[in-house]
Batch of 2 targets.
Target 1
Amino acid sequence: GDSVTQMEGPVTLSEEAFLTINCTYTATGYPSLFWYVQYPGEGLQLLLKATKADDKGSNKGFEATYRKETTSFHLEKGSVQVSDSAVYFCALQNPFGGYNKLIFGAGTRLAVHP
Amino acid sequence: DAGVTQSPTHLIKTRGQHVTLRCSPISGHKSVSWYQQVLGQGPQFIFQYYEKEERGRGNFPDRFSARQFPNYSSELNVNALLLGDSALYLCASSLDGGGTDTQYFGPGTRLTVL
């Protein structure tokens, strides 16, 4: 079945460092791909999405490109801030079946220190 | 505009009891999905509803049930609570619940079963 694999955390960075969080997926067909972020004690916030191969999603300085050839959707940010400290979830949504079930990775905790 | 709202925020129950969680979708959204997030893991899909009909169901026992009302709000019911049901329960809404539709999450209800 469909699945998402994320790099294990925690990822610890200094402020203004470059961030990469790896995400790969297994799916039949052409899923949509998402990154959600969860701040402590809160629900999930949509960070960015891409719906087809080679699409680049971007928001708040974060970017991810849908790479079908490598089945990847890695999250990047050029300069992280302390306020980016959170748990990041990669997810896929496969249109097969006609409903929008999200399949999540296990999450990657990011800690940014001054 | 208001986002997805959930109530209550926190809930403490004992084993064997039942619980009802509530969700109101974003205005104009007709589909609601429920997810369970156990501590340290990614969310797991429980149900999706669209126009009061169940459209999809995850791998959860029959103790879990849900319904959607004419105003598109939804309830998740869990009977005969087990310790393992302790989790953050997340509600997500989307426009029509189709396979490419984006889901937006509420803040969640944290359920503790003692």
Target 2
Amino acid sequence: IAGITQAPTSQILAAGRRMTLRCTQDMRHNAMYWYRQDLGLGLRLIHYSNTAGTTGKGEVPDGYSVSRANTDDFPLTLASAVPSQTSVYFCASSVTPSANTEAFFGQGTRLTVV
Amino acid sequence: GDSVTQMEGPVTLSEEAFLTINCTYTATGYPSLFWYVQYPGEGLQLLLKATKADDKGSNKGFEATYRKETTSFHLEKGSVQVSDSAVYFCALIMWGAGSYQLTFGKGTKLSVIP
């Protein structure tokens, strides 16, 4: 089934450790996104990529980095995790970054930083 | 900047009750508007959308009408079912930081009891 795959599903991470959340899509979508979901705050955009080779910062980019070496993969890296990065992380994609395009979401990664 | 405000939950209804979840937006121009739904343990998925004023989006018995004069996009369903229990997010696509970005409200949790 075509879609977005995120890994791991969940992770407990010690503060100060480095962690990469993986995201792969097989729909050949140009645009990809990373969101974090926190209770009472909804979803907030961390980073985005409009096409392979380009990335941009969203609303809450500090402490996170991304890369987009090819169309399918969009990993999110926490260089040195802190407890405030405890959250559920969602990767999403859309055909193009336009004004009315549907976004498709992965199942999420639940990250706990202790 | 552009933003979305939706009614806070949680909302608890009996099966077959009428549902309204209010959503208003602030935006420059006329954004496309969306409702996404998140079932327990899953990622978000598009429920319906409207791309211009007076458009009505509909899906699975849910409806929402794009009201420019009141800057609203309220979600309604005439008779809810237990299977409608989920978190509902109102969203718009805005231009910011060099890209179109999907901006979400904080979400409204709906619980439907038999």
